[in-house]
Amino acid sequence: MSRAVGIDFGTTNSVVAVMEGGETVVIPNNRGERLTPSVVSFGGGGEILVGTAAKNQAIINFERTVVSVKRKFGTEFSLGVDDKKYNPEQIAAIVIGRLKESAEEFIGEEVRSAVITVPAYFNDGQRQSVKKAGEMAGLEVMRLINEPTAAALAYNMPRGGEGAILVFDLGGGTFDVSILDVSDTVYEVIATAGNNKLGGDDFDTALVHHFCSEFYQQHSIDLREDLMALQKIRDAAEQAKKELSESDATTVNVPFISADKDGPKHLEITITRTGFENLIRKHLDEIDELVVRAMEDADVEAEDIDRVILVGGSTRVPAVQRLLDDRFAGRVMKNTNPDECVAAGAAIQAGIMSGSVKGLVLVDVTPLTLGIETEHDVFVPIIERNSCIPTSQNRIFTTVTDNQNEVEIHVVQGERSQASKNYSLGKFTLEDIEPARRGTPRIEVLFDIDVNGIVHVSAKDQRTGNAKKIEVSPREKLSEEEIEQIVSDAEQHRRDDEVFLGRRQLIKQARTLLVLLKTKAASGDISDDDEVPEINELVEYIEKVMQGDDIEQIRNAIETMNVYLNELAVA
Ligand code: AMP
User: What number does the ligand 1 atom closest to the CA of 338 have?
Assistant: First the structure.
């Protein structure tokens, strides 16, 4: 069997590692660097630059350069270069392809398979994109594993030990916090939380805004309108941020950033570490909230956490470390390499799967609830968030109208009770259901999540055996707003959702009573003849009420119908 490698395909940087003699080894690229910037730049002469060479081109060739492509998975992003169009998978495949080449040069043989890591918060579409990118780069993707799981594996493998590990992963563009229950052979992720739009890039952006405002105050020139200037400021901001991880203050200096009638202008601003921390306060607060949320989901207190593992370059920011020291005094491990441990863990998993590392099993969880949309926009969960994967669950559904001959299965992911407020993963229609009274057919809906976190959904008419299934497609796009909604709104809208479900429940009850009342009025067994027109009038009135949205009127209608039905039952 050829050697399998582990790949951390990062937002900012990517790393490839392999097992050698029972140890993980990070493979340097052709420039001797252990981290390859996840940047691709298309040169004018048809050449494709990757990594530092591409990053160095970013300013002069920004229109043909792609940075942070990982953030673009699940979006409609496409880059037009000459007469070709590149989607996120194709760009990612170029980066992964270069890592593969470096690995082949290092190992001295062809590399055919890999384990690739993904943020725990990636949804199915985004996971599929990463898998596809690996395949386009010529690799068999043996498995996708969550980045925090890989980090815990890399930390724990040489040392052993059991307990609760919190993996705190703050990179350039994503933040994941995961709590794992680790025993000798099983790594079980018991909870995850995070935000796939939060990271060191946001710290840079906060600094860029600060520098632009200061510059505007000094010179009345708005640098935000000048793309080239902005890129220079962004680089300077990132540099300043890194310096502030070591020193209490730093000065950014970008000469000739702009010019007006009085001549060239230079950007020169001093910023202190405290000033920087104030600029990123809201991000720090959000990070802290997500740590608390993961602990709540895992049902553990800070005292129950045995170790905190730091992953991602942004964990070097002192304010971030302080935040963790405050909660987990003495248990924050500062001796692993935050840039490399995810790739090392992926290499270990590749070793497990290719047989060179024995005795470990990995268990992951699904980070968001999966289910389907039912009548009136109600979301019915089928696999709850934080369920261990691989897993499968089924539920029986039925029809809502008489002789309904098809049902639409709309697969939805999220935490809101209203299906439309969640992320739509895909839809399909099960046809040719045998005609029957509503509520009679039994439609079995099965959700199956494989080891890569990819969801397969099937629906089967139990009576005829007629079935249909889909593998959730990455083409369904996820807007940035929707991601945010999934991650943070559910908690905020819990009350609204309760009200929504309460209303749906009332409307459903009113409908059932209305059907009963109509049946009764039409049945001819009402003794008092005067009562029939009265009931028909009532039915007419209630049908009108039901068309509206006034919940108090519907509640009153239910009471009135109950009174009538009780009286009719007694009579
Ligand atoms: P990653 O996605 O893990 O490669 O992390 C990259 C992020 O870490 C970028 O936003 C970097 O600016 C940030 N980073 C790297 N080194 C440092 C440092 N010494 N201090 C603060 N941030 C850093």
Answer: 3
Does residue 541 lie in a domain region? yes
pLDDT score for 480: 44
Q: Residue 365 is encoded by which pair of tokens?
A: 């969880």
Question: Which of 484, 514, 531 corresponds to the end of one domain?
Answer: 484
Q: Which domain holds residue 566?
A: 494-570
With the C-alpha atoms ordered 135, 137, 139, 141, is the resulting torsion angle positive or negative?
A: negative
What is the predicted pLDDT for the residue at 476?
38
Distance 109 CA to ligand 1 centre (A): 32
Which residues have C-beta atoms less than 6 Å from ligand 1?
10-13, 171-172, 200-201, 238, 241-242, 245, 312-314, 316-317, 339
Q: Is the pTM of this model over 0.70?
A: no
User: Is 3 in contact with 112 (CB distance < 8 Å)?
Assistant: no
Q: Are residues 345 and 424 in the same domain?
A: no
The CATH number linked to 244 is 3.90.640.10
Please report which confidence band the pLDDT of residue 473 belongs to, taking 50, 70 and 90 as the band edges: very low
Asked if 70 is an active-site residue, the reply is yes
Burial (0-12, 13-18, 19+ Cβ within 10 Å), 444: middle
Whether the pLDDT of residue 456 is over 60: the answer is yes
Q: For the domain that residue 85 is a member of, what is the CATH number?
A: 3.30.420.40
503, pLDDT greater than 80: no
pLDDT digits (tens, 9 = 90+) for 44-56: 888 999 999 999 8
What's the domain count of the chain? 4
Residue 240 and residue 121 share a domain: no
Q: What is the SS3 string spanning 361-378?
A: EEEEEECCCEEEEEHHHE
Catalytic-labelled residue, pool 55, 70, 100, 132: 70
Smallest Cα–Cα separation from 228: which of 200, 248, 254, 257?
257
Examine the residue annotation and report whether 8 is marked as an active-site residue of this protein.
yes
Q: Mark whether 169 is an active-site residue.
A: yes
The answer on 325 and 374 residing in a single domain is: no
Q: Which of 162-171, 267-276, 318-327, 546-555 shows the lowest mean pLDDT across its residues? A: 546-555
Distance (Å, whole) CA 183 – CA 162: 5
Write the residue with the smallest CA distance to atom 16 of ligand 1: 313
- Domain-terminating residue out of 365, 388, 418: 365
Residue 478 predicted with pLDDT over 50: no
